Amino acid sequence: MTTNDNKKSRQLERIRKLLSLSKSANPHEAATALNMAIRILRENGLTMDDVGLSEIRSVIITKVLSSSMNKTPVYENMFLNLIQKSFGVNFILCSDGYRKRYEIYGPADRVDMAAYVCEVLVRQICAARKKYLREYCDFPGYGYLRTLKRDKADNYCRGWVSGVSQLVHGFVEVTPEEEKMMLAYRNSKYVNIGMTKNRQTSASWDASGYRQGMADGLNATLNRPVNGSDVREFVLGYQG
Known about the structure:
The chain has 240 residues and is mainly alpha-helical. It has 2 domains: 1-54; 55-234, no CATH class. It has 9 helices and 5 strands. The protein has helices spanning 3-21, 27-43, 48-51, 74-87, 108-136, 143-165, 176-189, 207-217, 231-234, and strands spanning 56-61, 71-73, 90-95, 100-107, 197-199. A 3-stranded antiparallel beta sheet has the order 1-4-3. It starts with a helix and ends in a 6-residue tail after the last helix.
């Protein structure tokens, strides 16, 4: 074993001990241990897989609800929050240099299912938005009218997500240990991730559009099982 291998082994063992201490009932001691473990990970260019925490993993999703990295529409944040609570996972909004993408990370046994549901519903929301724009926002797309079309479609999508949320059976309760593991994963893999701002609508409240979106969202479908588990029964009320 080389000197570098010995050093890496010692650092990994130290990180494991710190992560064990992060489970302490003493909040200050737990936070200090977790922050120190994250610092050592970064300083040594180590990953969570190196530490043996492979039960936390991530999945990339390239089909997203909006292209903006700085100002996300309210309905997009609503949707991501719904997926997070439904499966006990987390999201990072990131870019591959050309386009925006979602990165879902969390316990390995839930990430794949969360990614599948996210992809299916994102495609349905996008299709529903285009249909709504075509059928209910058929006016010239210039100046303030272009902004009005966007805002009306955003409002419709807020209703759509609200409709889907009524189909959710219940939320996954994330354990304190899982929270710490996900925080360590995020802080070791993603550095200097900034906060995004909501894109607020400038249009007046459109109750009919919201109601139409909610009605359409209540008809969301998931058509196939994942890894032997039926996501329709796990997440959505299925009317088959």
